[in-house]
């Protein structure tokens, strides 16, 4: 009766596997996860903190601390409401002599300057004047009447971070057009601060999301944290990827802050060279490996890629040291760097068809 | 008058196998020409011939018919050594391997339907491996795996039923 | 060419699948089903969580037809639940991004009205992802 043995083997082995699977499935369902999640509105956007594996009161305490830190940072770096940064900008425009600044803000400004130089001016936090001219210095923005002369003058004035000098705790600018706006920096910087603070508090697993920029610490239980990337034109996610501990992801999109005028979309990402909102791209996503300023880089480095001409995108990414990036162009073409392609799982079958690999 | 043709003695069985191979090639080409709503999803009706030959003449002959079909069809369609050919070949090899294993199962309990389903799954697995490793090395393909698997199940079942009917008609 | 005992095996002289075939068919169906679950984790959401500011307003079943009015700092947002999907129907905000986002139906999807600080988050048994990058 050899066949009988064979049959038993053929049936029993998969059955056993199946039962084991069912058991784990049910076991996984019955126990609630030690997952704490909180949301708040800071930096003019949604801040979402998820902590895994800590008792709830502890997770709540740590989250509150981080949220207070964010609130404080937001109040100090606000670009158009009274803040330390606004005070500096006012002094710059009046051409006043050096003023005292807080040491941590001095560090932020010199780091932003370094990144601006690295991007050859494509990331330029000194163009607050332009951003204001485009009406993005409001919680809500309305289509503006485009003032070509004003924009031209602002570009011509050529405000650069290198116009700022910091010496002995005092700051000055030799260009009155410099108006520092850390809109493309502060959220990422806050992620780095949050990560450092979580680590200091001994939290092992957490995910912090500030307006779409995310940094991961540890894992979600057995699995890595998984992040969805928003489709720039649909309500769903276009792809997912696993965000391992210390990695950060950031997206610059034309769909978060924009207005439409005469059927044309004007987004908040302004090309410092032309003074006009960048066109032709719907979203740029960058994925940054663990490093001291991973959060900051996830916020900053997507901008030069967003602004670059299609043929110069790979070069812009390289200049910023970005290996993993995803570009969704207005013509629905999707450009993915080879290393990024390996990490993505497409959810949108239509999108997956339009993917081309970006050669480096 | 000298005869320059080489004479090979053939049996009626050889002729029959040749006819079956020709039929398999024909079915393969018909399928290649008919557009499919989803690229890659095809009923694989040529596999009916492979299965039929397996039952009637044994595994070795079935393997010959299957591989001859892949080579001859690709030559006729002008796909030889193209990605389409490699896909076809890897699918055929994997499904033959599956058939070899599946035919060891007790025939009292497992009919051509089992063999057909196993072959269909193996066929698609072979093709997906090539796609993943060589053609589109992107994780995006995994999105399509369930569709391919479902198609393999449905067409494997249908082809198995047809084969069973053919074998029964003969006997 | 020797014939294998296959053709002489006439125990299979009917069209109906044998017991082993049924087993294979059932295992295959289960396998395909799990593949869909595994690779198409595009799971339809079952619940909706609404937040205003940093408070959870409530968690609602998606399988109902209902209209909710949520008060925020600049007015009242109207949210409609309609048998498995949800959307912002009306919002006091100027840019109306939240309304334009349309219907949400998959677990993990999020719609946010920043000016009114109202967020909708769809929950499912298994979320496709932990957080959304936008």
Q: What report would you give on this structure?
A:
- The complex is a heterotrimer of chains A (360), B (171) and C (134).
- Chain A is globular and about 60 Å long.
- Chain A has a domain at 206-357: T-fold, CATH 3.10.520.
- Chain A has 360 residues and is an alpha+beta fold.
- In chain A, helix 7 (186-200) packs antiparallel against helix 8 (294-300).
- Mean pLDDT of chain A is 87; it is low at 7-30.
- In chain A, strands 1-2-6-7-10-13-14-15-17 form a nine-stranded mixed β-sheet.
- Chain A is built from twelve helices and 17 strands.
- In chain B, 72% of the residues lie in helices and 0% in strands.
- Chain B has one domain: Arp2/3 complex 21 kDa subunit ARPC3 (Orthogonal Bundle).
- Chain B has six helices and no strands.
- Chain B is globular.
- Chain C has a domain at 47-123: mini-chromosome maintenance (MCM) complex, domain 2 (Sandwich), CATH 2.60.320.10.
- Chain C contains two helices and eight strands, in the order H-E-E-E-E-E-H-E-E-E.
- In chain C, strands 2-1-7-6 form a four-stranded antiparallel β-sheet, with no helix packed on it. A three-stranded antiparallel β-sheet of chain C has the order 3-4-5.
- Mean pLDDT of chain C is 81; it is low at 1-12.
- The chains are: A alpha+beta (360), B mainly alpha (171), C alpha+beta (134).
- The A-C interface holds A 7, 11, 14, 18, 29, 38-41, 44-46, 48, 50, 67, 139-142, 207, 209, 211-214, 220, 225-230, 235-237, 240, 249-251, 253, 255-256, 259, 285, 347 and C 20, 23, 27, 30, 42, 51, 53-54, 93-95, 97, 101-104, 106, 108-109, 111-112, 114-115, 117, 119, 125, 128-134.
- Strand 8 (225-230) of chain A pairs parallel with strand 8 of chain C, so a sheet runs across the interface.
Distance between the termini of chain C: 67 Å
Global shape of chain C: elongated
Helix content of chain C: 10-25%
Strand content of chain A: 15-25%
Helical stretch count of chain C? Answer: 2
Using the coordinates above, name the CATH class of the domain at 206-357 in chain A: Alpha Beta
Strand neighbour order, sheet with most strands of chain C: 2-1-7-6
CATH topology of the domain at 47-123 in chain C: mini-chromosome maintenance (MCM) complex, domain 2
What is the name of the CATH architecture of the domain at 47-123 in chain C? Sandwich
CATH superfamily of the domain at 47-123 in chain C: N-utilization substance G protein NusG, insert domain
At the third CATH level, what is the topology name of the domain at 206-357 in chain A? T-fold
